[in-house]
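Would you be willing to look carefully at the protein I have copied below?

:::
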Amino acid sequence: MLVCDKCGAGINEGAKFCPQCGDPVTEADRVTIPVTESQMANVEISFGQSSSPNFVKAVEICKNIPTYSVTGEGKQTQHKITLPITEVDLIINLFELVGSWKTSQMLINGHAATKKDLTYYGVGCYRNRQKAYRPEQFCFGEKEYEANIWGCKKLNMPINEWGGGWLDYGEFDKSGVWHFDKNRIKHELEIALKENELCPVLSRKRVLETLDRLPDSINPKRDNNWKYRISYEEVNGDYKEVAVGVKPVIKKINRYVVGGFKPSWEVETADNFSSNDHVIKVNPQPVDEEPRQKRPPKAKRKSGSLSAIWWIVGVIVILYLLFK
């Protein structure tokens, strides 16, 4: 994994320069991150003297914060506070007051930052989490399409009942056993973890422990927690059902979740089955039972049929008498 040793930005493999600061890529940028619990990020906001009407209000807010300090004199005066990123709403409110000044600066873990770092990515998602009815379930996904076992839906690696996505990272052997490509899965996770690392509740350690708990190999014929994902493909001129991957039984998938909280997701009914499943509704009839014969439809009585017959007979009699 590449991380710029100057600004801390993530760097793609093969790049020769940091995409943020332009520093040339060297071996010093290649790091191996130990599997440890994420540390809480600290945010530092500093600003100088200003004629803005917001200056007095900003100072009043800062005076309530224990880390508030003032250095220098006159035009060189600097006001500074440090807060944990969990106080993101207070940080945003203060930065909205002073952020446009030339003398203001915001640092997150020592690196220059903008308001976007607080409203998008992991921190922006964290703000929504804190407002959610069930914060822990929020991280695992409240909607079925967000369901994940990692504890972070911002990683964009959901686990769907119909399979697909990262579940397709792997291959079958000749006996029909699926083998996950965990190196590829980890690579995708690491990229997403880096993008959202400022989230206070995102645990890289827990995410990678979850990956370790996931089976290396799956045999859906024996493991009732999994099924084959089927596709129709042409085989020797005919279209047949072919196993192209695996898919989970969503009610059982939280067995791989690390920690005390076990998420749950609504399961689609037969009315909303996926394109990979097919449901045929029939009315079964026992094999040894003779088919029921259809009864002939009952004749419908026509209104006035008897009187019409007598009328015809009367006409015939009259004609007979006239021509006799």
